[in-house]
Automatic annotation (TrEMBL):
PROSITE patterns: RIBUL_P_3_EPIMER_1 (PS01085), RIBUL_P_3_EPIMER_2 (PS01086). Pathway: Carbohydrate degradation. One of its GO terms (biological process) is pentose-phosphate shunt. Keywords: Carbohydrate metabolism, Cobalt, Isomerase, Manganese, Metal-binding, Zinc. One of its GO terms (cellular component) is cytoplasm. This is Ribulose-phosphate 3-epimerase. It comes from Aliiruegeria lutimaris. It comes from the Bacteria. Binds 1 divalent metal cation per subunit. The gene is rpe.
Length: 231
């Protein structure tokens, strides 16, 4: 069921890599709505993370939504593997290749929801003829590749324009990068509904002391919801 309520999606990029299963169960118990999985190839972005086998391994620990963000190029050859690993949403980058339309077809064809991510320097014009094929647009508010970077403010206006372009279509607007209780309200007011947060969720906590995860999630959600009701 589609809705525009605020959803917090912790990025496991900031979790303990030796403990993904426990970390995921901990953030879900503490209020996470989705689990965001960052896949990097050392080519499209200057960092390497994980692939389909790890997604398959963590899938049984996720009871919400497995939101897989592919920062890889090329993409198409790997879509079936990420779908078979249990992804609910697969997001590819507009900048990852010349055939985004085909990539979105392949993601839905593999039985997943199709996401499209835009780097901070990319405009929204090029997606106009693909809106009926997209379930989620991910606006990168940092340059992809690393957690813990500074929020890029110019992306607020992009989200506002994107929200107007989407109209009544059932497309989520997800923000990825630099989300904190200070920046999340700007994006929520501009029209975002899914807020990815890595460092701002995992800071201060651990699997043996997960309460800070809950405090961090509640702080981001409260700030975002307050900005919504004020807009
Ligand atoms: C960046 C990743 C993000 C990142 C967010 O390339 O796509 O999901 O982990 O981390 P924070 O919330 O720390 O900016
Ligand atoms: Zn991401």
């Amino acid at each position: 069921m589609f809705d525009r309520s605020i959803k917090i999606a912790p990025s496991i990029l900031s979790a303990d890599f030796a403990n993904f299963g426990q970390e995921i169960r901990a953030v879900e118990a503490q209020g996470a709505d989705w689990i965001h999985v960052d896949v990097m190839d050392g080519h499209f972005v200057p960092n390497l993370t994980l692939g389909p086998p790890l997604c398959a391994a963590i899938r049984p620990h996720i009871s919400t939504v497995m939101d897989v963000h592919l920062m890889i190029s090329p993409v198409d050859a790997y879509i079936d593997a990420f779908a078979e690993a249990g992804s609910d949403i697969i997001t590819a980058h507009l900048e990852a290749g010349p055939h985004t339309h085909r990539t979105l077809q392949a993601i839905r064809g593999a039985g997943c929801k199709a996401g499209l991510a835009l780097n901070p320097g990319t405009g929204i014009e090029d997606i106009a003829y693909m809106l009926d094929m997209i379930d989620l647009i991910c606006v990168m508010s940092v340059n992809p590749g690393f957690g813990g970077q500074k929020f890029i403010h110019s992306q607020v206006e992009k989200v506002r324009n994107l929200r107007a372009m989407i109209g009544d279509r059932p497309i989520h607007i997800e923000i990825d990068g630099g989300m904190t209780p200070e920046t999340a309200p700007l994006m929520a007011a501009a029209g975002a509904d899914v807020l990815v947060a890595g460092s701002a969720v995992f800071r201060g906590g651990s699997v043996s002391d997960p309460a800070p995860y809950g405090e961090n999630i509640r702080a981001i959600r409260a700030a975002a919801e307050a900005a919504r009701s004020g807009s």
